[in-house]
Design the sequence.
């Protein structure tokens, strides 16, 4: 058994992380994996989470297949900021990845050979999650700007019932640039006309322009569209990374069919979602909401601050770093330069040149900038 399996390469990002951990370089920097570190480079835990975890009940029972529905409704309404529109199925998931893959499996049960419209570059794992889809790709960025026309053309030429994948809010992994609110409205109007189903991967709520601004995006998807799906991750914005906490929200007229299929998918995969993260977040929302929101805002502002120093330490062509949002930006470096950064400077970046700004401490920025300039010259 198993002799017929192919040997697959390891996941490049996790491999890079292992290499970083094993490195003995005295000034090593992890610009790879998407974890936000405190400004001094130490692990960051929200104080609201710290307070909540000691009160999480360790109940000896399973959640249901749909997860903790009180948590799902409370968390979604907290992000949404008012009563949710009708016709929304909420399914608790193991983080954002699982919410994305539940959605992908649900579509595959509805459509044979479904089509996915996806602007590239994107989060690399989207291509694993949406395996079995026929993908139509188009560039997300053209000449440094988000390619609104590319989105509209892709929608205009797509077969109906295709799925358009969007990154939630103003953040985008890996480019750091996303559709503005008015451009998003134009895109959503076009999808409605062509009967394209919108799927939003919202992994960084609060990291874009702040709570209230990011909320406007969530409201736009859920209020403007008659049907859509949104994957929410609480990995980064609550730091629940390893506790795998997320929600898949599907707005649909087929509430019962969607919820029974999601239950069935969950049952065959994980049986029921984990409860530690959802209990902790329920406590945060009930007892420490303003503290969490304030801390999240300080994280967002800290990323802006680090972006600003980084851009100011680099030549003019890197000024885009200041305007990009969220944790990631793409550095214009080739693979040889990325190799030199790792081997000579102890700076670990994926081959795409994506940098996690939240992985570079404030005191490491000038060293990082010096290294980037050095390799850019050679
Ligand atoms: C765009 C995007 N979607 C989804 C995820 C997955 O989130 P989670 O860690 O909650 O599975 C990430 C995490 O890196 C991401 O960047």
Sequence:
């Amino acid at each position: 058994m198993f002799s017929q399996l192919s040997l697959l390469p390891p996941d490049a990002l996790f491999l890079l992380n292992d290499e970083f951990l094993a490195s003995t370089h005295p000034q090593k920097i992890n610009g790879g994996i998407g974890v936000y570190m405190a400004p001094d480079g130490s692990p960051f835990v929200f104080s609201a989470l710290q307070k909540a975890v000691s009160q999480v009940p360790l109940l000896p029972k399973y959640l249901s297949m749909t997860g903790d529905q009180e948590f799902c409704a409370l968390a979604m309404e907290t992000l949404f900021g008012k009563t949710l529109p009708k016709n929304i199925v909420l399914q608790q998931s193991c983080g954002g990845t699982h919410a994305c893959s539940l959605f992908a499996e649900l579509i595959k049960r509805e459509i044979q050979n479904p089509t996915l419209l996806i602007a590239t570059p994107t989060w690399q794992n989207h291509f694993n999650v949406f395996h079995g889809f026929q993908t139509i790709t188009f560039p997300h960025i053209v000449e440094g700007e988000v390619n609104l026309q590319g989105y509209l053309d892709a929608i205009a030429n797509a077969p109906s019932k295709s799925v358009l994948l969007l990154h939630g809010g103003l953040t985008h992994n890996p480019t750091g640039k996303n559709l503005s609110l008015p451009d998003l409205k134009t895109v959503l109007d076009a999808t409605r006309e062509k009967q394209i189903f919108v799927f939003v991967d919202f992994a960084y709520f609060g990291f874009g322009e702040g709570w209230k601004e990011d909320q406007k995006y969530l409201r736009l998807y859920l209020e403007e569209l008659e049907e859509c799906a949104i994957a929410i991750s609480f990995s980064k914005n609550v730091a629940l990374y390893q506790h795998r906490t997320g929600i898949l929200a599907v707005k649909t007229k087929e509430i019962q069919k969607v919820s029974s299929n999601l239950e069935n998918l969950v049952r065959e995969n994980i049986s029921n979602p984990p409860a530690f993260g959802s209990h902790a977040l329920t406590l945060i929302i009930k007892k420490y909401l303003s503290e969490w929101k304030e801390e999240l805002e300080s994280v967002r502002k800290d990323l802006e601050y680090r972006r600003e120093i980084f851009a100011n330490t680099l030549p003019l062509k890197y000024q885009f770093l200041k305007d990009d949002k969220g944790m990631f930006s793409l550095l214009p470096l080739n693979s040889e330069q990325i190799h030199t950064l790792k081997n000579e400077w102890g700076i670990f970046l994926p081959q795409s040149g994506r940098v996690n700004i939240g992985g570079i401490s404030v005191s490491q920025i000038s060293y990082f900038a010096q290294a980037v300039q050095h390799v850019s010259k050679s």
